[in-house]
Amino acid sequence: MNRETEIQRILEQGKTDLHTACRIFDACETTGLETMIGTWRGREFHTGHPLDGVLKKLNWYGKAFHDAENVDPLLFEGKKGNVFAVDPVPLLDKRKLIKAVGGKARMRMMEYRGAMTATMIYDNLPIHDHFRKVHDGLLFCMMDWKTDKQPYFFLLEKVV
Question: What are the tens digits of pLDDT across the range 122-135?
């Protein structure tokens, strides 16, 4: 079964285990920074992580990569369909959604799980998001939060 078919099957089932998600991530191609530029629509990939379902409830939209130094790591969709960037620190501190001014993350190439790939580094949080390519326009992503016991997985699909 190819990666895209396996990912789709898991999304339809609603959940998979951590081992399977890691295996899929490791099998995906690495990606460069230039591939990341643009706006991406996000989708959660449930593995039993405590964040599973949280972003969807908050109307998470995705991420916007403007250049290597300026990334909006959290975009949300408002009630009228407007998309806006949110400062991740208050959100992850369980306070509330506060609109961000300027990018709150940056990108670098980093080695992770044995391969060099595009990585987003939050400015004020111990979090790295690592990106692997399923195919052009679809990324399988792993959030590595220093204090978490397991990674959080999500997908990004290129919008513009």
Answer: 998 999 999 999 99
Task: Report the predicted TM-score, pTM, of the whole model to 2 decimal places.
Answer: 0.91
Report the CATH number that the domain containing residue 112 is assigned in CATH: 2.40.128.580
d(CA 97, CA 58): 9
Residue 39, domain extent: 3-158
Q: How many helices (H) and strands (E) does the chain have?
A: 5, 10
Cβ atoms of 105 and 123 closer than 8 Å: yes
> Which uninterrupted H or E stretch holds 135?
strand 127-135
Judge whether 129 and 140 are in contact, CB under 8 Å.
no
DSSP conformation letters of 12-34? HHT---HHHHHHHHHHSEE--HH
